Every structure is written in structure tokens, then in C-alpha cells.
Amino acid sequence: MAQQERAVRTRRAVLEAAAAVFAERGYAAATIAEILNRAGVTKGALYFHFDSKAALAQGVLQEQIATEYCVPRELKLQEWVDAGMTLAERLPREPMLLAAVRLSADLQGRDVFGSAWPAWAELTGSVLTAAKERGEVLPHVVPEETAQVFLGAWIGVQFVSQAVADWADLDHRMSALFNHVLPAIAAPAVLVRLDTAPDRGARVIAEVRQRSTVPLADANS
Amino acid sequence: MAQQERAVRTRRAVLEAAAAVFAERGYAAATIAEILNRAGVTKGALYFHFDSKAALAQGVLQEQIATEYCVPRELKLQEWVDAGMTLAERLPREPMLLAAVRLSADLQGRDVFGSAWPAWAELTGSVLTAAKERGEVLPHVVPEETAQVFLGAWIGVQFVSQAVADWADLDHRMSALFNHVLPAIAAPAVLVRLDTAPDRGARVIAEVRQRSTVPLADANS
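Above: the input entities. Below: the C-alpha cells describing the complete assembly.
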């Protein structure tokens, strides 16, 4: 294995271990020792890539905005729904996403290592802006405002799902959230064509995996 | 002062001190010693009313569903909006409400002392059911489902407002949330008559205080 490839793998192993520890314990209670232990790398290897716990948190926050499940659709609003529904499907299974959610909501820590919230809001804002340019969105909608409402609503919905059902009902709660917000956003002719069913996320993920020639890492493992 | 009246005042003083400490530090970090200190009562007086820290948390959670700002309106949906908007106005200023929000979101503690979430969801559910009976609500709306969506959305929106603006924009964020959810719920003729302006909460509170012959405790003090 080439040296560069080995470095990429080490970095990834460290990030995944850090994500698992941050997702379980939160930032304050996480220790470099436990991350080293989980990653199975030397202290020197970890510090070569990340010079502090804060740098690890920043790495996790940057990592999670993966777009491998973004499939272009005829309707931009369907792409927005798909982003939310695939996230709902993946979140309970992927420590990298769980860690990003937990770190972003850390009121003490976010001043130190930042937050994924601005990136999430920007993603929604840009999809809605594109949807608006195509006439899919009602004229009075302000994409940035809707992005902020949806950011808050999504954070709360996933938190309630975690608290009351250990995320088991997240797909249903996210589907219901879209059904409650889309009528305020989508043009009527677009609204009726959107698929917001609870299993939408699972179907999109299956579709992407089937299409993909290079097999994707199994998120369930 | 009669003995009973003194007991009621002591109980209230203890609850308010407990709420302030829970709101600031969370349940795990709160100590009976600090609550005693803030309340200015004896240990015996506190334990006469509450036999544990968990009992104090339960007391705070029961206390906060005060309905002094519920004014009957022609439209039941306006009463729902008013409940949300007055809550948004009061939350940053009232430790009892802040404590209830924080305790209810305590993933470890809520098994011990419960959560205000079910009571909040029930409140929304019952108002929406009444609104539906009067034909204010679209026929496909399921009040319990909307109550769950709104519970999650409201929790997230207030959390984001706390994190990014120390609650200073909560009235605007709550107003935007209602504007994004009501089109999925309200009959069109009702929708156009609802007042969801950011200052709605402040206006309702001012109205109630002016009407009230017995002066209410100043929530800002």
C-alpha cells in the first residue's frame, strides 16, 4: 500500500473512532485515549492528522456533509425531501452523522469547534433557491427563512425521536414534518407530485447502491 | 400570616429557586445545597415539601403549564398561535419555563422525573381537536400527529434560537414556524385571519395584564 493511501486510511480510522466517541459521550467527556484505543493507531499517527480534540471535532463536522445519496430529480423540491429522508434513514446508523448532530448542539463547545448548522441551512437554502428559480416554490417564500425554520424543526424532531423512540420512528416523524411544511412552500401542482412517504429515504438509498458500480461502504455494518 | 399561607409561600420559593438552578446548570449538576441557599429556607422546610431532587424536578415540570395568558378567541387556531407566541415571549424571562424545557430534554433524567412534552403535545392536540370540530382545520389533519410535529419543531426552534441568539430572535423564529405550518392545517378562510406576527405574544401578554384586576407578578423582574 502506498504511503499516501495509508495516511488516508489512518486519518479515516481516527475520524471514525472520534465520531463514535463524540456520538456516545459528547465532546466534554470524550478523551483522546479512548479515541486512540478505538482507532487502533499510535498517538503519533493521530497527532500527525489532528493536533487537538477540537481539531478532531472540526474534522467530524466537515466530514458529515457527504452527498453520495444526492440523486438529481426532475423536481428540486424532491431532491430536498430526499436529502432529509435519507438523512433520517442514515442518522441512527452512522456515528459520523450522530456525532455531527451532537457536536453542533453543544452549547459550550460550538464556539470552540464550530457547528454543522450553517452548512445544513445553506444546503436547504440553495436547493430552495434553485427550486424557486424553476417556479416550484410559492412566490412569497424566502429560502433563507425557510432554511432556518427547517433547521430548527429538523433538529427538534430528531431529538424527540431519539428521546422517545431511540430514533425508531425518525422516518415517520420526518415524513410528517415535510407534510406539514411543504404546503407553505411548494406550488400546488408540484406539491401533489412529491413523494414524502416514511420509506422514501430507504428507497433512495437502495436505488443509489444498486446503481453504483463501485460498492458503497455498508452504512449498517 | 396564616400557617397555610406561609407554607404555600415557602413551597413557591423553593420551586422558584430549584427552577433557577435547574435552568442554569441542568439536573445532574444541580445541588440541594444551592437550591436551599437561593430559596433562603431551612433544609427542614424544603424536605417538608419535596423529599428529593427528583421531586423538585417533578414539581417544576408540573408548575410550568400555567394558563394565565390563555384568552378565549373567536378562532381556536388563534388560541393555539397565542399559546405558542406567549410562550416564546415568556421563555427567555421565566426560569420556571426554561427549567421545564431543559429538564424535559434531559435524556438521562426524564426517566426519573418525567417530562413536560406529553402535556405540551396534549395541549396542542386538544386545541386542534376543538378547532377541527368547528371546521377551522383542513379535513385530513390528524391533531395528534400535528401535535407531535409541532412539539419537535418548537423544541428545535427554541434550541437554535438559544444557541445562535441567546433567545433574542425567538419571537421571529416562532412566528416563522407558525407561518410554515399553518398552511398545512388551517382552512383557507381561517388562515388569512390568523395573527402570527412576531410581536403577537407581547401584545397578548400586555392585553391580559391590562385586563387583570389582580395585578400579575411581573415576569420581567
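Note for the figure: The mean pLDDT of chain B is 92.
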